[in-house]
Write a structure and sequence with these properties.
By secondary structure, this protein is of the alpha/beta class. 44% of the residues lie in helices and 12% in strands. The structure holds S-adenosylmethionine and 2-acetamido-2-deoxy-beta-D-glucopyranose (5 copies). It comes from Venustampulla echinocandica. This is S-adenosyl-L-methionine-dependent methyltransferase.
């Protein structure tokens, strides 16, 4: 019976939470008290401890029942804020994290858009909803000059006491373009203020916004709308979010930062959220923070964020924790109108941009919908054989037909990155890590062999993106960069964004030295408008790569760092560190050879080392990225080379048993190392002209020696607007991408050593080869490298309409290039079209009538 329970034990859940949280409050109290003691300089307002006590009182002790005037939400708000308006800024600095990041991100978007505008229309409106004391508007001056950049700024807040603080602030700053509007956000309409009718301050007598016609008025809408920690405080958030779309200009940006709690389960079937790094909050966190904030009438339920994401397109989104206060989850989200900004094309056709991107992805001709009438295009669609469609197109169509926003890739400023489903196992297997921080292929040799021109359409493996960039220097019509590992593509995106947004000095620090102390702020305020949401999230979570004081920078990250570390470890353990330094300083080949043969080679190339470390399959795969099948190829080559003349042994792994191959591994790997390294020492001065080995040995490039893409001239060329218009970054298997290219459009495919990874003799290799044949033009070329002198699959190419030419072979101490990691290099030229089995009949069940869609 309830009455028997002693009264001191609270039964009401509210008080239970209160007691559970009490200890935390005390803890937070200590943190506040101690941090404020050292930061007394916080502008006006009372001292630290007093601020905290008032904050504490208002947040946790004072009952929020209003003062009985019966004015609903405003009443409650006022009861909460009245006592603490004066100390608001001092107490929130640490509690409301992420506000500067959000401001930096939206400012970067606006500045990027301003740079693209041809007309010098400087009218720019910002509405800060729930702006409180105006702290954000003042903080924006860290990014742009508020009085000059914005023609008018509206601070809309429902709490008169906070509005009063805000008015004083802007009077002090002398910013006359900022107007403080003390009003419920649900009823705020720009038209009431922008038509020059009045300098409306105070309670604007707003008429009810037209219920049926959700149209922007004559004003054209706000270019920027921000909600910083206010969405969670508005009980009736649906109507406020709905009103945003009328408030926002067609090309406007919304910036939101707020607390949230969400489970990954809620998101699992949504493909438009722009990535979910750190988004999941565990069960305890979800329960605790919701209950905790409920005390202050702050609503953390998932629906607030979900509804935003449903009503608008996601440009960028990121999730983080406020670790100072027990890791409260918060998010930063940038959105735009659900209808993609069709600056590429005529607006008003939501499907048009989807079609355009699709055409670019699949190399199919793009037919503008203006060209045909609706009915015509529909009959065309029904009568012609199924077209080849990109996966991005399929994704967009499904989501359009459900009235959902498009995947976030469609809302980016650049359409470089193509949509992919990041939850697929084939992508998550990489565990958020790239393997290659730099590309192990000599771009100078590629350049000489390929001689790309303005009509070339190139498909190449991304790897670290270095070669993609060096192809871009030849300005081919299109480059399709393909990688199954999303993180490799994130790295390429970072490089491309850095060209687009950073001066050479910063570019050099990032990718020449691999370290940059200001990486995070550059990422937010410069690089973010040029990146996809997923790449942005990735780098925001991994700023340590460039910034860590202990870390060795970019070139010691990724899977290949193990190899570099082992070299460093060995050189320290065996005492030849000084020799490596001398080697890198050598000015002549003779000097270099001397140091190598006398000092380093005997130690590093000892057979013992090779047997114990390098020939371990685990080492080869993890550190050097050599898969099992490739290993078998070099083992077979070794057996063939050792065989007695007269009884030749096959050089294909198919000709040997696995046992035979295994037993020769130590020997074979040792030989392979000798054939790789000795010729390199003989033919190029590492410190002068071999950036590939230089970066392995010292973890950074030097001003004297670096890949072409890092030269100031390259930066000049690739930082021009539109330099990467032809770039498409695909996250998928080569097979899948080639399959969706229009037949006969590709002129060059660079597949690196990826053919080595197929099981010897496997049907999969034949399939890939015939798909390459189909996608290539007659005369189109495949460039590949292999760990074998004569790879087994060359014969398969010849059976599938190609001629082959070995353009480099590591025979008799020759180098195939400055890296010399592969035994051979081939160019295969397409000479005939294969009769194509109709391998793929794309289903058009998902096809919907785009014209009738409304988004
Ligand atoms: C946590 S404060 C954030 C203040 C400020 N944006 C900042 O980041 O410091 C939330 C603000 O939302 C305002 N607010 C709550 N409900 C509102 C409503 N319906 N209309 C306008 N403002 C509201 C409150 O008055 C309060 O100033
Ligand atoms: C119509 O199609 C033709 C050929 O595809 C093209 O040259 C022309 O520019 C298109 N017209 C419009 C308005 O898009
Ligand atoms: C959005 O498109 C993706 C990609 O095809 C699809 O997997 C997802 O289910 C779609 N979302 C919804 C809610 O239909
Ligand atoms: C985010 O960063 C943490 C710590 O650096 C790391 O453990 C985690 O794997 C990263 N997550 C992603 C998705 O990159
Ligand atoms: C050969 O080596 C691989 C990997 O080390 C191992 O999985 C396989 O069982 C070995 N085969 C034989 C026949 O020893
Ligand atoms: C990232 C993401 O949400 N992916 C989902 C896309 O949609 C499919 C099908 O609904 C899901 O299986 C994926 O998890």
């Amino acid at each position: 019976m309830a009455s028997l329970i002693p009264n001191i034990l609270p039964r009401d859940p509210h008080s239970q939470i209160f007691i559970v949280g009490a200890s935390l409050v005390v803890l937070i109290g200590f943190i506040f008290a101690s941090t404020f003691r050292f930061s007394k300089k916080v502008d006006e307002g009372p001292g630290g401890l007093a601020s905290f006590l008032r904050f504490f009182y208002a947040s946790f002790l004072k009952p929020h029942t209003g003062d009985g005037t019966g004015n609903g939400q405003q009443d409650a708000l006022e009861s909460f804020y009245k006592a603490q308006a004066g100390v608001y800024d001092a107490t929130r600095k640490r509690l409301l994290r992420g506000r500067e990041d959000m401001l930096g991100l939206v400012a970067a978007q606006l500045v990027h858009k301003a740079g693209n505008e041809r007309t010098q229309d400087t009218k720019r409106i910002w509405v800060d909803i729930g702006g409180g004391t105006g702290w954000n508007i003042e903080a924006m001056s860290g990014f742009v000059s508020v009085p000059e950049f914005f023609s008018s700024v509206y601070l809309v807040d429902f709490s008169p006491s906070l509005c009063e603080v805000a008015r004083k602030r802007f009077a002090r700053l002398g910013w006359t373009n900022v107007k403080v509007v003390c009003q419920d956000a649900r009823t705020f309409r720009l038209e009431d203020h922008e038509n020059g009718a009045s300098d409306a301050v105070g309670y604007a007598a707003s008429t009810n916004p037209s219920y049926f016609a959700e149209k922007t008025g004559s004003v054209g809408g706000a270019d920027l709308v921000t909600l910083s920690y206010s969405l969670s405080m508005i009980p009736d958030f649906y109507s406020v979010i709905d009103s945003l779309s009328a408030l926002l200009a067609p090309s406007g940006t919304i910036g939101v930062v707020d607390f949230y709690v969400q489970s990954i389960v809620d998101l699992s079937c949504r493909n438009y959220t722009g990535g979910a790094i750190n988004r999941h909050v565990n069960w305890f966190g979800r329960l605790f923070w919701r209950a905790w904030f409920d005390v202050d009438r702050v609503g953390l339920e998932a629906g607030r964020r979900d509804y935003l994401e449903y009503r608008f397109g996601t440009v960028l989104s990121a999730d983080s924790r406020n670790y100072l206060l027990g890791s409260i989850p918060y998010y930063v989200w940038l959105g735009c109108s659900k209808r993609p900004d069709a600056s590429l094309s005529t607006p008003n056709y939501p499907h048009e941009i989807v079609e355009r991107i699709d055409a670019a992805v699949t190399e199919s001709p793009y037919l503008s919908p203006i060209n045909h009438t609706q009915t015509l295009s529909r009959t065309v669609e029904r009568s012609t054989p199924p077209e080849i469609r990109s996966k991005a197109f399929d994704a967009a169509i499904i989501n359009l037909s459900a009235n959902l926003p498009l995947p976030s890739f469609f809302y980016q400023n650049h359409h470089w990155r193509i949509h992919y489903d990041d939850q697929l196992k084939k992508h998550t297997q990489f565990k958020h890590e790239y393997i290659y921080a730099f590309t192990w292929e000599d771009s100078r040799v590629d350049y000489r062999l390929l001689k790309l021109g303005p009509h070339d359409v190139v498909l190449a493996i991304t790897s670290a993106g270095d070669n993609i960039l060096s192809y871009a220097l030849s300005s081919p019509a299109r480059i399709h960069a393909v990688d199954l590992n999303p993180n490799q593509n994130h790295l390429l995106e970072l490089k491309v964004a850095a060209y687009s947004a950073l001066p050479y000095a910063d570019f050099w620090k990032l990718f020449g030295l691999g370290k940059h102390p200001n990486f995070r702020s550059l990422l937010i305020s410069r690089l973010s408008p040029h990146m996809s949401s997923r790449a942005f999230q990735y780098w925001l979570n991994n700023t340590d790569v460039f910034m860590s004081a202990r870390g060795k920078g970019l070139y010691e990250t990724g899977g290949s760092r193990h190899a570099i570390r082992i070299v460093r470890l060995l050189s320290t353990a065996l005492g030849f560190r000084g020799q490596i330094k001398r080697l890198l300083e050598a000015k002549t080949l003779n000097e270099q050879r001397e140091i190598w043969t006398k000092r380093i080679r005997p130690l590093i190339m000892s057979r013992v080392l090779s047997y114990l470390v390098v020939s371990q399959e685990k080492f080869l795969w993890a550190a050097l990225g050599v898969p099992h099948n490739q290993l078998a190829m070099l083992e077979a080559d070794h057996i063939a080379a050792e065989s007695i003349p007269g009884a030749p042994s096959p050089s294909s792994p198919l000709g040997h048993s696995e046992k035979e191959l295994n037993s020769s591994r130590g020997q074979a790997v040792w030989e392979y190392m000798v054939q790789t390294l000795d010729p390199v020492i003989e033919s190029s001065i590492i410190g002068e002209d071999n950036p590939y080995y230089l970066v392995c040995l010292q973890g950074a490039y030097s001003q004297r020696c670096h890949p072409d893409y890092l030269k100031p001239k390259s930066h000049q060329k690739l930082s021009r607007p539109g330099a990467f218009d032809g770039l498409r970054i695909h996250t998928d298997e080569i097979n899948e991408v080639v399959n969706r290219l229009t037949p006969g459009t590709l002129t060059v495919a660079v597949v690196m050593d990826s053919m080595d990874w197929f099981d010897p003799g496997a049907e999969a290799a034949n399939t890939q080869i015939s798909k390459l044949n189909r996608a290539l033009k007659l005369g189109g070329r495949v460039l590949l490298r292999s760990a074998a002198l004569t790879p087994w699959y060359i014969a398969a190419f010849e059976e599938h309409g190609f001629t082959s030419k070995r353009v480099g072979a590591r025979i008799g101490g020759a180098c195939i290039d400055r890296v010399n990691m592969y035994a051979s290099c081939y160019i295969l030229t397409k000479i005939e079209n294969l009769a194509q089995p109709t391998s793929r009949t794309p289903s058009r069940e998902n096809s919907v009538d785009l014209e009738t869609l409304e988004i």
